[in-house]
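lol ok so funny story. i was supposed to be doing the assay writeup but got distracted and ended up predicting the structure for this chain instead. priorities right. anyway since i did it might as well share w the group, maybe its usefull for someone
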Amino acid sequence: MRILAAGDHFVRPSLIRAAVSQELSRTGRDLPEFAELTLPWPHEPFGPVAEVREASGTEDELVEALAGTSVCVTQMAPFTERVFAASPALRLVAVSRGGPVNVDLAAATRHGVRVSFAPGRNAPAAAEFAVGLTLTAMRRIAAADAELKRGIWRGDLYAYEESGGELGGATVGLVGYGAIGRIVARVMRAFGAHVLAADPYADRAAAEADGVELVDLDTLLIRSQVVSLHARLTEETHHLIDSRRLGLLPDGAVLVNSARGGLLDHAPLPQLLRSGRLGALALDVYDTEPIPADWPLRDVPNVITTPHLAGATRQTAHRAAAITAAEVGRFLRGEELSHLANSDVLAAGRP
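and the output, tada:
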């Protein structure tokens, strides 16, 4: 048995190896042969590789590293049709991300390879970051910091018309109510906010138990002074918040997107911000990453920007390694995987 830890500079190969070794040692199994590959992300941006959307590294280096490998644990390696075809010994790809977007699942199934993923690995980090963006936007923290460092004392931000709002007593709308949304709701309610959520897949009884009011999306946008996006990006949710829906927001609303750039139609945003219809916008994700030099929002007021950092905590990296290591342990013990992405592979008959 040979395991490849195809890590990067966030979920490091050493973290993967340590987590898998710990998992296997608990069951008294002999440790397998390990190989390591370090991919360039995040020092180099991820992007499309062949038919997969978000990956780091090349097919050639991955094929070479996979020689004789049965199990690969990775975050970003590009598992394409070509890679699967060149790796006949491969049986499991354990992806340490919330979704295996760097894997051609159809190709994996054709080649009889199970693919697992790591849901919830960054939920605490992403939730905390969304709350931080919200507070930064509402209270103009980033703008005040930048101007003070330039020698400008913005005492005028205490003027009534310039001052921000509070979360206490505000209505906060969460678009998506999964693992991240539920943590955000808990924090927002601790501030004293009334929390709405729009998610057609949410459990109504669970939301009510959390003190959250489930409503349809249009109602949420009409009623919320703060809106934070936490939905998955699919064909159904692409540009979910479009020009019409942006027009439903109350004057001066704050909009936060730390989920996926494609959820939000960026074209109407400059005018909405310049006119004051949208009070502030906080973004950690974008329709194009990295953002281009001529990005339309670059010189627009009341925009907070961060470079896709919501999940960037050391705890996230350790959780990612631990979740995937647990899947490797289940696989080697012949148990059912907890987070199998291509369940149809089980009909292929390959051990």
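The mean pLDDT is 95. Residues 2-121+313-348 form a domain with the Rossmann fold fold (CATH 3.40.50.720).
back to the writeup now i swear
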